[in-house]
């Protein structure tokens, strides 16, 4: 079981992570403000990168070619990010968050520079993988640092600052992508990460004084390799099944089966490891299991709506790409609004009750999407997306904070990493399920090029996308069930 708030690890959280920081105030102008700002800038790198590229795909393909390969720009990024997260979490519990965060920022910036100079689509895909490996450190380390330097009560306020980054990115990302693609060059989509990354690294280096007690550690090389390769194969199989190969083909069986076998091999290896990269006690905790299942379903919900709301707007309602993107941005705006207020709610009624309210709101939003059709208004689409985002904002942050608060400094990195890893797995599962349903409805054959919204009659496309909204509703119902797994009780730990 994870050690509780009175464990040696918990004392280490105050003594090791930030011994010279006073806890007088919260905000960007407080003594911890520069650290918070550096975390926001770092998370902003990942947040903007997740939205800025989509609007420039046409310009990239026009310049580099490789239309059939461009989906890999997104898949390989997710692949690199997800496979590395659990390892980063464990390393951070050994060497500290600062070193891992700086490494992630450096890798992300290097990958961005290489992407900006890419000479072909295969080269750009390879460099996107480097970006993904860097992003795999940045987001979980940002959340872990916040968990280290702020108390539970303070995080109720601070999460609003971090969540606001995603709201800003939802608007700034597509806008910058369109401007660079139309008025300059798509390469600036990647070069813009350089000054942001340098600023974040400089501020973190100057202001975050993390004194880690150096002790001798046993590195779990075997477990790390098995986790990275196994999870990469599983995610690859989920992303490309039904796209590059049939689900029942030998390729699918080899990739998915090989990944599952490697992950199963992790179990005996971790039992023998002195310091396992994925400790067994994570899976014996009701709270952590519930929080990770919630994160998995949040990932599935997000990827389903992110992938198909814009397609519905463009292909069914006939809006422009920008308008369809703004309809989706409503979800990303609803999320931080809820997250910034979730702290007061979970401090008053507990993590579980707050998350139950949020999952109920998300279900209402998903149900509203079931009524969308060819005659719907884009405002209806945006409204449903906003409500879903509002609900998820009351779910994602509280469940992660509850998981972080249940362990000490020496376990918080791996707990945060596993939570983020679960969301990546959920995204991959969502891509597989939703993609298979839509492709089957449209009669898209494996290996064929992506369907253009202009090539499908709006009514037929609406019918093909309707199962996606059914799936989102089912995911929201399952989300309520997973939240119910969380233990009862008020948020009274610090």
From TrEMBL:
Domain of life: Bacteria
Sample GO molecular function, one term: transmembrane transporter activity
InterPro entries in the cross-refs: MFS, MFS_dom, MFS_trans_sf
Domain Major facilitator superfamily (MFS) profile residue range list: 35-490
One of the record's GO cellular component terms: plasma membrane
Pfam entry (one): MFS_1
UniProt-annotated location(s): Cell inner membrane
Topology of this chain in the membrane: Multi-pass membrane protein
Family the UniProt entry places it in: Belongs to the major facilitator superfamily. TCR/Tet family.
Gene3D superfamilies hit by this protein: MFS general substrate transporter like domains, Multidrug resistance protein D
Name of the protein: MDR family MFS transporter
